Fold:
Amino acid sequence: MTAQPRKILLGVTGGIAAYKSPDLVRRFMERGADVQVVMSRGAQQFVTALTFQAVSGKPVRTDLWDAAAEAAMGHIELARWADEIVVAPATAEFMARLAHGFADDLLSTLCLASEAPITLAPAMNRQMWANPATQANVRVLTERGVRLLGPASGEQACGEVGVGRMLEPQQIADEVLARAASEGSLKGLKVVVTAGPTRERIDPVRFISNRSSGKMGYAVAQAAREAGADVVLVSGPVQLCAPPGVRRIAVECAEQMLQAVESVIDSADIFISAAAVSDYRAQEIACEKIKKTGETMTLSLTRAPDVLATVARRASRPFLVGFAAETENVERNALVKLTAKHLDLIAANRVGDNLAFDVDENALTVYWPGGKQELERTSKAALAHQLVEVIARRYRERERKAGGACSAVVPPMSPAAHAAG
Ligand code: CTP
Structure:
């Protein structure tokens, strides 16, 4: 049985990044999506409608008052046709009009008239992005469930450097389609996610920590939320905002992380342990700042609690997902942890080669008893959706085997169907 192609209405508004949008059409189509392009008047100053017609194979819609186009498919019909609306690039002006519910051209009317999820890939000068007016519109749109991809930071067409660049077409396509694939897969389930590093205090001014930025765990929490789960995120100290709709509990050290997890784990269906928890903590925390004395010094460390292993020992335990960040023997180490910590699934990655810590991209190999699946290198957001999809399938498979009633929601996947060798 082949899946229905995802019907994407691609809105293009008037920014210089519009020159990348034909490539985005191609990337969507390569992945089997059906794309209808709608251009704003401004967009047509940058790229012609003919370019989009050539790459999408469909006449481009540009005008609310085009009688011939309306006769073929009225704008309300077009709004209903879309499974998803993606606007790339989305200018500051378009975001302002969307935030205020304007409907004075075809694209803004379609956004108002459609029930489909809306994703924006903003592109603008860094000052325009940072302007309080734009930021207020971003807040309004995000609160209403509009999803933003980017903008990225870097060199801009205007010669300035800063936040405002549109994400690359490949990344937009990966994230949109990965999210679509996991849509609704965790509906009705409660998921607890840990993320970020922990900090183990040594004295009032020092602590032991690690390079985890929390990006992967936060992306997983957001992906789980977008897949329909009720998500609690237990987070170590990071520089990230809580994803929309996710309840965050902020903690500092491993002990606090364990307590926070234990306070919410009873009703959880799935526990995803993405935090880089310290394995050791200072045996004693000095009350005063430790002064330098000799040439060397020794710090006594003792084991910090293993949050994941503690949850795994519970009599009624949720579906358990661990992470393994390794510098060598990735597969062997991951399989040892899968067995030793009695996990249902483990996501393993190599640290280094600009992967894993404090970067935006990652690649994972997911193992479960008797199977594995490779998730290729891509943005952490796209990867998180792919991981959530695998987790959802394995969870439903376990429920089905245990005689649960949920197996009808997502068809079970045989390990062989997705095993990557
Ligand atoms: N983990 C945890 N609490 C700890 C240490 C690890 O919950 N104190 C979790 C991590 O969130 C991850 C998994 O256990 O999901 C594996 O973590 P990792 O540090 O790679 O494994 P360890 O078992 O600690 O082994 P090692 O550090 O020796 O590689």
